[in-house]
């Protein structure tokens, strides 16, 4: 069955698309076989650039002399005005037209033709040869072969490289918009690499963005999987060793749309399926995990608020278990990502990895694990912000982790008065949040002894909490001691307490 181009498809000849790079090495297969493949892929390219335009319609572009070629087509698309202008018409000598005719005959290898005419072709004419064969309906393989010859002859300057990249991007765009198989797009990237035109990271971004913007998100995932499976390498546009690759970029696209779990699962699933995403993708996935845990914590706080306001029912045991499992599973994914980043990345990433883990444990309210990450960061030479220490201190206080609190307070002892007040205030609020009002009262007393005045709302919260628990053992003494310290510092007026005895128990009935 003939293809749309009128040639036999490669599949009917028993030739896979992955074999196409070898086909152009073997001219004996003939023009039709090579043309068939590119008729299916590159010849359906995206608004393919043309140098053959109507000068009356657009005087800024080239008009090739019609006497030189038969059946010239007029192409509507012109994307190469940054490279080609009407001035090039004067530079197109007889050698240019002879080269085109000879290359189209397909009787000799393009490298032989170009080698023979090397002295007669200018740099601009060689660029025009590239553009000519990149047109839809032409033998696009020839454009790749011409570029390969230019590279071997060291005649690829910056402008020629930009031109070829533009052509390749046009082909890729047309393949995607034409809904060709993802494998065809990856085949093109492989062929680029074969001729010495290593795909850049920005080209990977372009492919993923095109799929994503078209709503073909599953195809974007398939593209990334195929790139990883076939081990396609790409150049780093800005020389940053930690620049993300296709996996990280796709995960980032998911994260921007708020699909945090999708981003995490993408990287984890790829890694566990035996593929090897770039190291930077692990950090992006960890960032997505942080955001998911943060959003989950905010939703959980809202739910508990509704329950306290009796707008919804209290969480039952089964729901609580599901919540804890969700958090634990997500944290486990984060730990796996951190292990892969540490194993496969350089030591310069260790601090960032522990920083992400710290953020995850903070969002999940895991005090001991968060405190450990603070020390891990310090060991690798990355000191966490003082505010992060205070947040972890508050979490540990809410969970009454005495050992962790004692370790963290050693840092507070040597800090400035302003910093010390802020840290102790976080400690105080942590105790209040956890309902540990006796420890909160001790913290208020400690602050007063150090000459630090707790905020009014903090003092009021502690007093209110103690008042509600006044019937417990030792609560009266704690309350009275706190009141005395507040009174001595002129923070409350004298307290008048009325008492009565009922069956040997002391009850407070009023406090002023």
UniProtKB/TrEMBL annotation:
First and last residues of every PPR repeat: 420-454
UniProt entry tagged with the keyword Repeat: yes
Keywords assigned by UniProt, alphabetized: Repeat
InterPro entries found in the cross-reference section: PPR_rpt, TPR-like_helical_dom_sf
Bilayer-spanning residue ranges: none
Gene3D superfamilies: Tetratricopeptide repeat domain
Keyword Iron-sulfur among record annotations: no
Name of the protein this chain belongs to: Pentatricopeptide repeat
UniProt organism field: Trema orientale
């Amino acid at each position: 069955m003939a293809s749309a181009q009128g040639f036999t498809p490669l599949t009917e000849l028993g030739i896979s698309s992955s074999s196409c790079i070898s086909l152009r090495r073997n001219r004996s297969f003939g023009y039709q076989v090579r043309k068939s493949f590119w008729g299916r892929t590159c010849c359906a390219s995206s608004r393919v650039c043309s140098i053959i335009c109507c000068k009356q319609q657009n005087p800024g572009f080239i008009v090739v002399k019609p006497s030189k070629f038969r059946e010239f087509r007029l192409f509507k698309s012109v994307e190469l005005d940054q490279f080609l202008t009407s001035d090039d018409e004067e530079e197109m000598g007889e050698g240019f037209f002879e080269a085109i005719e000879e290359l189209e005959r397909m009787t000799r290898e393009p490298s032989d033709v170009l080698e023979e005419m090397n002295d007669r072709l200018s740099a601009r004419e060689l660029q025009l040869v590239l553009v000519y064969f990149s047109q839809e309906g032409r033998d696009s393989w020839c454009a790749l072969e011409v570029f390969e010859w230019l590279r071997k002859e060291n005649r690829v300057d910056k402008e020629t490289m930009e031109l070829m990249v533009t052509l390749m991007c046009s082909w890729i765009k047309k393949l995607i918009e034409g809904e060709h198989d993802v494998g065809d797009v990856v085949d093109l990237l492989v062929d680029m690499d074969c001729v010495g035109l290593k795909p850049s990271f920005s080209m990977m971004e372009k492919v993923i963005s095109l799929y994503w913007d078209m709503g073909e998100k599953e195809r974007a995932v398939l593209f990334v999987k195929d790139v990883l499976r076939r081990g396609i390498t790409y150049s780093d546009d800005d020389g940053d060793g930690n620049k993300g690759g296709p996996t990280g970029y796709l995960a980032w696209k998911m994260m921007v749309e708020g699909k945090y779990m999708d981003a995490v699962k993408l990287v984890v699933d790829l890694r566990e399926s035996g593929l090897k995403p770039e190291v930077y993708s692990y950090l992006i996935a960890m960032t997505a995990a942080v955001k998911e845990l943060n959003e989950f914590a905010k939703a959980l706080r809202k739910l508990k608020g509704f329950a306290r306001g009796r707008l919804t029912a209290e969480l039952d045991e089964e729901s609580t278990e599901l919540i804890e499992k969700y958090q634990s599973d997500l944290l486990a994914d984060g730990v796996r990502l951190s292990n892969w980043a540490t194993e496969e990345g350089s030591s310069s990433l260790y601090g960032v990895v522990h920083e992400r883990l710290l953020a995850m444990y903070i969002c999940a309210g895991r005090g001991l694990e968060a405190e450990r990450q603070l020390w891990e960061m310090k060991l690798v030479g990355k000191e966490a912000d003082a505010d992060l220490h205070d947040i972890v201190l508050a979490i540990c206080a809410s969970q009454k982790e005495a050992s962790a609190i004692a370790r963290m307070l050693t840092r507070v002892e040597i800090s400035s008065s302003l910093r010390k007040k802020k840290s102790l205030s976080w400690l105080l609020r942590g105790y209040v949040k956890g309902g540990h009002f006796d420890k909160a009262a001790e913290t208020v007393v400690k602050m007063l002894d150090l000459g630090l005045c707790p905020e009014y709302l903090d003092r009021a919260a502690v007093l209110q909490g103690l008042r509600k628990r006044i019937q417990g053992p030792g609560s009266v003494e704690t309350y009275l001691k706190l009141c005395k310290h507040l009174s001595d510092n002129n923070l409350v007026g004298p307290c008048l307490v009325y008492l009565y005895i009922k069956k040997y128990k002391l009850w407070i009935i009023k406090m002023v």
